[in-house]
Write a structure and sequence with these properties.
- The protein starts with a helix and ends with a strand.
- The longest helix has 21 residues, at 59-79.
- It has a 4-stranded mixed β-sheet.
- The protein contains 4 helices and 4 strands; from the N terminus they run H-E-H-E-H-E-H-E.
- The model has no long low-confidence stretch (mean pLDDT 98).
- Helix 2 (29-41) crosses helix 3.
- It has a single domain (3-117), classed as 60s Ribosomal Protein L30, Chain: A.
- By secondary structure, the chain is α+β, with helices and mostly antiparallel strands.
- It is 41% helix and 15% strand.
- Strand 2 (47-51), helix 3 (59-79) and strand 3 form a beta-alpha-beta unit.
Length: 119
């Protein structure tokens, strides 16, 4: 398979975050390293990194936190050789939950960064 097709598969991963944190946990390093390598091998690819939060704290704070999460993921990939101009970073705060915010498990699932190909 070509690197661009493999990249599409690799971009399905989600990076989960701890409550009120934007630090990438070590369990995501291998997946992110793979994305970086495939983006280098597929130079036409552009990727939107979307940051998300649960519903704890204010909407304004969550927008900032979600942007910081997406930016942290981008910075990780840039440090591994992918050009920054190939990324669009967007923070969505609590506006796009993937699970219910009524449970701890749901809120944990919502604290994430996701990838979308935009080329």
């Amino acid at each position: 398979p070509n690197p661009c097709e493999l990249l599409n598969e690799a971009l399905r991963m989600k990076v989960q975050f701890d409550l009120n944190k934007w630090v990438i946990r070590p369990e995501y390093f291998n997946g992110l390293n793979r994305i970086a390598q495939l983006m280098i091998e597929c130079p036409v690819a552009r990727v939107e990194i979307q940051g998300h939060t649960c519903n704890i704290w204010t909407e304004k704070y969550n927008l900032k936190l979600s942007d910081m999460r997406a930016t942290e993921v981008m910075n990780y990939l840039v440090k591994r050789g992918v050009e920054a101009h190939r990324f669009l970073v967007r923070g969505f705060g609590l506006t796009m939950p993937t699970a219910s915010n009524k449970t701890d498990q749901g809120r944990e699932a919502n604290r994430r960064a996701e990838f979308v190909r935009i080329d």
